[in-house]
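#data-curation
PF: Archiving a pair of folding outputs for the training set. Convention for this channel: one message per protein, sequence first, structure tokens after, nothing in between. First:
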Amino acid sequence: MFIYSIPIFISLFFIFIQEIKSKRSFKIEYFLLFLLLGVIGGIRFQTGDDWKGYQDFFEYIDVSQNFLEAYEHSLLYFRFEIGYFALNYFFKMIGFNLYVIFIISSLFCALSVYKFTSTINCNRFHIAIVYISFSFILLHFNEVRQSIAIGFFLLGFDYYLRKKQIILSVLISSIGLFFQVSEILYMFVAFIVIVFHSNSKFNIISIIFMASMLVFFKFFNFLNFLAGISIESIATKANLYANDELEAGDGQKYFIIYLIISYAFLVKYSKNLIEYKLKIISNYSSLSVLLTIVIILSFPNNYVMFNRVYVLSSIFLAIGCSIAIQNNKNKITQLMLLLNIVISITFYIRILLLNSKAYFPYQTIINLI
């Protein structure tokens, strides 16, 4: 793993130097970093929490059957996301293996993040550090389907910010729903931001929306409701989500405090933004952090539900804070930069220690040669 990490550290070093010099024209180093992250996450072999499940799913698909027959006989847990099944079915049918899917999904996610962030006036070193610490392990070593969904969401969101064409933007983002249905939460947040961003009471409206979601999730047993409906694939997934509980303990309480601080920071420094693109992104960042708080309070100690929202929220938290840091040079923003780096590295170390057997030793498809 160390050998593969050296190019990442070199890229980070050059990005850091360019940030100190306040030069914005370092897209090559920034692109190289995300390309490396995509490659390292894509060439893994029997490494990561998700490897066994995805391997079983791929091997279980019978390409001698037609598409619909194979879909009906595939493993139930993955059947809900027909897009991921179609991807596996197609590549297996033409003779490729699971490694190709991992490489494509990892590169697609990493380069989608690069494309979305590369044109924003922000602190890219901060984004890179937070992405590597929070999102890299979770997306590139655990959540193949979600990484694809996030890639499509970012492409759709980016298209809207450039072209202001809502219908095509929604269509692009919606492709991700066929890979991870939880993307509907990302799109819901985007809907609120786009509709209400110009309203002077945006933050109050956001809190009302999120408080309503908290009441709905908390007091109506949302997952149990889904588990009780007749559609088998939905019920199976809801049962798995409902029963996936970890004893997060005091760590989760401290993390909520960090998220509340981050939310307040984003709200404070988004008020003075004038550029439409930066305003939309900053508002999305604050609302996605608020959504994460709602999910934690609604489903305590439930890692799956937390993971479904925070892997994207962490990206936008990094972007939102980076915009604030870049446009406001003061002690508060510098302290926030330091806090994010410390929390990110702590999170990264904790994930690796909790799942050391899944991540070490880091093996790649190169080992098969």
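PF: Second:
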Amino acid sequence: MKKILVYPYTYENSLLAFYENSCQLFEIKGFLIDSFSLYVGRDATFYSKDKSNVYVYGVNEISNLIFDGVLVTQIYSDIELENYLKIERFAIENGKKIYVFDEIVNTGIIKNLNSIEILGEREKNLMLDGNFHEIDIPIISIMSTGLSCDKLDVQLLLTDLFTKNGYKTLAIGSNKYSEFFGIKYYPDFMFSKEISLDKKIIMFNNYIYKLLKEDKVDILILSVPGGILRSNNQNPNFFGELAYVISEALLIDINILCVNFTDDLTIEYLEKVREICRIRYNRVAEYINISATASRLKPSENGEEDEIEYINLPYRFVKEHFPKICGTDAHIFCAKYYLGDVPNEENVLLQLTEGIEVL
């Protein structure tokens, strides 16, 4: 397995250190950031109760590190671009690989395309028969009310739970880091604006049927792209379209809904979003994951609609302020920090595997 560094260090990509033991694509050796950053020298998962022993290094330290390549996850600012060019120059001179996602390539900011390898490409031009098939294995869907709701954390928790109990899973994910953990990306047609909803439903049903014919699995775990409803005009969450396509294409057995953290979460809000899942997506949310990220409205400076700002929360804060909800039959938990009524052998595993024989 190739050893890589990740640039730049962010909360989002720190999950590669958080779940380093589950990473199947690369071995994560460290993170790079601007040499003047306060994060230099810190453990990449310092915000958690469990440290990873994967550290953050300044870009100027790159020549002292042992690695095969660098994963570049974003280039937003002039400083990030300046540091990227240093990394690119070092990589080319020393025979190191640079890995990027296609979203960065599409910006045109990287000029030397010969030095990179693109990750995250979706399956295209699939041969599908166009028929609607019955899918006869248990299916778990992981939906969310918006962004930064830790759907990948839930998917990894469930995959690990079923795998260690002897069940073979097929997981399809909506996070750009999905393939790092052996999770398939959704095929390209799901995001096409030229394909109608009814055709997408049939195509996705046929796609899953084809996958299951090729590989015998016991349980299907789907992290649904986007949200179940529009957050605001700037973040429409696909208007819940993909959640609708998936819920019409397949019969969901368990639905898990992920929401942003708030310490004043009410039973009224929970029952409202659970009811949306039941009416629009054919399955009530039996499990509610409280993410380790809070959201709030940030006043717009140009007079447009307020922006949504996300705040990442450390383990200690989430544990101390984890909401206590009474009057609901939903299992409420936090997957990232393993708090609350977490899915386990006594609830979700037992519910799904009755009648399934482990081979």
